[in-house]
Design brief:
Number of strands: 10
Oligomer: single chain
Structural class: alpha+beta
Strand order of the largest sheet: 5-4-3-6-8-7
Strand content: 15-25%
Order of helices and strands: EEHEEHEEHEEHEHE
Largest sheet: 6 strands, mixed
Number of helices: 5
Distance between the termini: 25 Å
Radius of gyration: 17 Å
Shape: globular
Amino acid sequence: MIRTQDGQTHLRHLLPRKTAMRVLEITRPWRDSTAVIFDRPPENVILEIFATDDPIRSAYYARNKEFIGQAVPLESCLTEDPLQVMLSGKVEAMRDAEAVLRGAATAEGFKVAATVYESRDFSMIDVLHPHCSKGAALAEWATLRGVTREEVMAVGDNHNDLEMLSYAGVPVVMAIALRS
């Protein structure tokens, strides 16, 4: 998704509801780690269970409480196509969830992107439209704007930025990159 500072969305690729429903079905064992993310105000992060035993997620909930809603069961929030389904939690549990997602028979209907912070024992899995990535979005946006890749500068700090940095004519990796 590409959005301006004033909140106007210029480009987005949504995960079809049917696909999101399937993802929720196959990730049921990790329901306490699952959120559905929408491009809508004010509540764009929908959870079924608030995992308060995890200090990283609890801090996120506290910082973003105005954007977080609840739906029980989580499937009931799928009244429109979401941006993504996201799972987060301890590394070992998220590796198990990632393996299930990557091995799913319907894997061709979505893309799995994982970010792992070994030192914090925390991992995030983004389940996205199959053509979504930061690199693909940057390339599409540049093309729409008539900008060549040589004119593009991208700044990244983690593994999920690699495709974007590869696309950019001027890739910049932050000094703090990949330390966490």
